[in-house]
Structure formats: C-alpha cells, structure tokens
Amino acid sequence: MRWSLGCFFTVMISAAAANGEPAPSAYRNDEFGIRLTIPGDLRACVAQPDQHDSGMSMFFQQTATCGEFSTQRFVGVSLSYNLTPDTETLTEFAYRTCHQAPGIQCRAAPNGLSIPGAGGIARRLDYPNGWVDIDVMAQAWPDVKNDPKKPFINYEITLHTTPAFLSRDLSVLRKILRGVTVWSPL
Amino acid sequence: MGTDIFAVKRAGATVVFCKRGACKTLIQFPFSDVNAAQKHWRISITSFRGDSGAIEKLRKLYAAVLEEHPTGHLHDWQLFEGLTKAVNDGRMEAYELSDRDKSFLDRYYNSVSEKASTFDVEPAQVLGLASESGFASAGTYLVTGDAFGMTGGSTAHMTMAGGVAQNVEQFFSSWGERIRGTKSNTPLFLNRLLGKDAAGNDAKGELKYNSASPGWRKEREDGINEMRRAIPIWLMLQGLDPG
Fold it and tell me: Span A43-170: which CATH code?
C-alpha cells in the first residue's frame, strides 16, 4: 500500500450506546495494521496530536491519568517495528519483555491468550512491588525491505493489574483480544 | 544478551568488543583474511552463530598476529579467549550492522552527532528514538520525513521535514532543552522526554513525548541499544575510531 496523508491516522470511533451501557468504541492504527474494540466502561488514552501513534491504553478507572502506567490498572497496546536482535524472534521478544525491569518473576500465562490473526506467546510477569502483567506478544509481516525472513511488526497487548483484580481483569483482556483484527500494513 | 558485540572490518580487520555501550578495539589484524565476498568485509552473523569454524579462523589469525608482533597483545588475547568462549557457549551473539541501520546512520549520524554534542547528550540516545520510524524506513516517516516520532495523527500538528538537517533541527528545537545534559543516562533521558522527574514521578503539566503506549519506554531503550551496537561498527566503516 502506498502511504498517503490520509491513511495512517489513529481512528477512534464511538458506537451508538445500547441498553444504557457505556458505548464501546474502536481503535484503529493503519501504520501497524491493527484494529480493536474498546469496552465502553474503560477509559481510552490515545496518542495526542503531536505524538506518534504507537499504541494506546485502556484504564479500568475513568479518573486514571494517561501515561501513568505503573500504579494504575489498564490494558495497553504497544506497537513497534522489529529492529533489534533483542526482539528478533518471538522467543527473544518474550525474553526481553520478561527482563524489562529488575526482579520480575516470569512464568507461563493463563491458557488461550493470543492475538487473532497473528498468534503469539503469552507470559505472566510478577513484579517485586506486587503488580502483575499478563503480556500477549506476537510478530507478523515480513521485513521485505531488510530481511524477508524476519517479521517486521511487534504487537504487544498487556494487562497490568493486581492479584486481587487479576481474575476479573483477565476476562476483560480476553474480551479485548477477541475483538482484535490485524492486517499487513506493508 | 544484547549488550556485547564484536565485528570484523577490512583494512586492518578490526575486532571491536563492546560491553554496555562502551567499546574498545580488541584486535587489529595487520592483514585481511575475512570473506571478501561479504559486504563491508565482515564475517556474517550466520558464520559466527554457533559456528566454531569461524571462531577458529579468528583464533588462527590472531595467532599469526602474535607471531608477527609477539609483544603487547596479552591482555587482548585473554579478552579474546573469553569472547570466543562466550560465543561458543551461546551466552553472546555476534552482531552485524544491518543495511537499514547503515542507511540510517549514513543519513543521520553526522547531523545528530553535531547537535548532540551541543546539548551534551549521547548521539545514540537521540538516534535510538528513530526506532519510532523503523530507523527512517517505514510508516509515517515515508509521508512526513520525520524519523523521530514527533508526528501525530492530525494534519494540524503534522511534523513535516524537508530533509535530514531540518528534521534534526526540529527535534532539538522541540526537545533539546528537555534532554540537555543527560549524557549517556538513558533512564534520565527517557524520563525527561516523558515529562517525569529523575525518580520517574510525573512532573505535572509537562509535555510528554508519548502518553498512550505503555511499551514506549522499553521500545526506545531497544532502539537506543541498537544504535549503541551499530554506531561503533558504522564508525569503523567510515575509517573512524569507535573508541
């Protein structure tokens, strides 16, 4: 696809509210090729007008502060190009994620977590301060310009929560994952 | 994993050893015996990965160097032993400068390096931010010419760059004061861009380079580390001393 000014903008579309529940909306990123549905009861934070759109976050509390990730429960979407040996394969991507901060205990995530259309791998990260991440990672689309044997785009969808909310928030993560669509943007 | 590299170069066939971004020339061969078919006369990553033959070849080359120059290499030799063992044990991987990184550094290194010295910041940190654009190879960059991810999703705030020099100038004009004096302190560099204080706490009212993606910090750390691996090799290819 040839890029043009109109084709890579973040799109958030609100759907009509139904039966009194908060309306879901959608996030779409054409640069990385992903679309997902945002549950209506989560607070969505997307890139500001002068920020490159490389993902978004959905906080469980409506009063949450965008960009404050360490002390708030959220499901986050991180999108990046696969450019370094640190994330070259899915295994290395997961290793890097598990070692992103000191003291993280990394283990298998609950079953059945993947990104539709891209597959992937999931890990549970237990932080020394008690927070828990469930991290779902996938890589897709050949790096045609540099090395077609390697995937060029990293998708990472993360639940950041506490043990007390893990079960409840995990069901939200599963719901969000079910609503993900990815496609090749290259 | 990921912080150690070595590379071989023509014209003296240099082996460089880097640890956590600090590089030193490990061996300088007085002759070239690397594969002439390899671009830039480097030993490819595949020939090093788990291939004891390539390591043995280097070992023989170095033995020949010692024979020619019997003094002054003992320390390097010991390091080389450790290096080869680490590679053979799978604890360390060879690193190869990618065509993408080379192309990016060909275009951006000199402009960024010059401005970075003015602001007392390590060039690799600024260059690493360009992982936002696949090191000036993909996505919004192809439309805007902005490699550093200053480009948003609104035409009203679009950062358009007419060329590398203008793009670098835009970055330092917008963010230079924020990162001034961060030297090689990557946590501090990223905290400043994210509008946080040195301890990582939110500084109220500060503009943020990114406030939406929770993976932004990790991804930029990876970009910066990539540049710290790539720059010494790129400098060698320019005939410059990476040390």
Answer: 3.40.1000
